[in-house]
Design goal:
This protein is an alpha+beta fold. Helix content is 40%, strand content 17%. The strands form five sheets. Strands 9-12-13-14 form a four-stranded mixed β-sheet, with helices on both faces. A three-stranded antiparallel β-sheet has the order 1-3-2.
């Protein structure tokens, strides 16, 4: 009779040695399972599957995201950190704003020799970040994860969507993202660097698109981000765009980008001040700048016509520098 290892008499040991059903082949061998038995069970039609070199999934179904992340961390070894799109999503960014099928991007200490393979990209770095734990998974901080993702993207539209998501929904400041790009590898940073440099001194990412779109208007705005006051000196607001000669303002800072109720309440109060002063307000969802630019231009041209046809409200600009 052939001798079988402890795993045969105590199959529960397999699950005890695994994490999310993922286990190192070396750990299975410690249960007196031969290498031949392990990999025979991973052949097509077998009960297990090999996810990465020396990393086994103890079932043959499609692996879950958690199982793939676990396999990647086991492959990388101690101190491995998840970065890239998976880290961004686990920090709370929307998966819809991430590039599709990016694989798993991991950071490992520079002295460790572990190769990229399968669905895993291993990046050796001398700048290992202090990990942020989310449900037991070590993640690169969001700023690092965002820049690690951005410099690997090939299309500017993907970079644009990612950076806007990180800034508007993740709370990353453009200056902080630029600093991270400055300190890391320079490969692939030209596009995100150009975008972030143009965004540092404006109030929202949507405004960059609005300024480009406004160039197609017969009468572009006279001012951007200018503080305006009524005839009594009462502060009305600082609209994204203003046509001073006709009292038309354009705002893009809608509830789509301001998720806190207090921000939304301030927007309503500001628009009420505009209306009381006789200003005409065009408010545009940020997504419409991308998805329906012709419709936005049509709205602005129509509002411009209405504003021109009535007396100009008594408003003035701030004289402060």
């Amino acid at each position: 009779m052939s001798k079988r290892g402890r795993w045969a008499q105590h199959p529960e040991l397999l699950l005890e040695r695994s994490r999310n059903g993922v286990v190192r082949a070396a750990d299975l061998e410690c249960l007196e399972m031969s290498s031949r038995t392990i990999y025979t069970r991973c052949l097509p039609g077998g009960p297990w599957q090999r996810l990465l070199p020396g990393i086994i999934l103890l079932h043959s179904n499609e692996p879950t995201t958690e199982q793939l992340v676990t396999a990647g961390l086991l492959h990388g070894g101690a101190d491995t950190v998840v970065t890239g799109t998976e880290a961004c999503v686990r920090h709370g960014l929307r998966r819809a704003a991430m590039p599709s099928d990016p694989g798993l991007h991991l950071l490992i200490p520079h002295e460790r020799k572990v190769r990229s393979t399968g669905f895993v990209t291993m990046e050796r770095t001398i700048r290992m970040p202090a990990p942020v734990l989310r449900h037991g998974v070590p993640l690169a901080p969001l700023i690092r994860a965002t820049t690690d993702t951005a410099r690997r993207l090939k299309h500017s539209e993907q970079v644009d969507a990612l950076l806007i998501e990180a800034i508007q929904n993740g709370g990353c400041h453009p200056k902080a993202l630029l600093r991270e790009l400055d300190h890391g590898t320079q490969r692939g940073t030209a596009v995100p660097r150009r975008m972030l440099t143009g965004w540092v001194d404006i109030r929202s990412m949507a405004e960059s698109r609005a300024k480009l779109l406004a160039q197609g208007l017969p009468s572009p705005p006279s001012h951007w981000n200018a503080a305006i006051y009524d005839s009594t000196g009462r502060y009305l607001g600082r609209p994204d765009a203003l046509w001073e000669d006709i009292g038309l303002v354009w705002e893009i800072d809608s509830f789509e980008f301001h998720f806190r109720k207090a921000d939304y309440a301030r927007t309503i109060e500001r628009n009420t001040r505009y209306a009381a002063a006789g200003l005409i307000v065009v408010q545009t969802l940020p997504s419409r700048l991308r998805d329906d630019p012709e419709g936005v231009l049509s709205d602005l041209n129509a509002a411009h016509g209405v504003a021109t046809a009535r007396p100009r409200p008594d408003i003035h600009l701030s004289t402060a520098a």
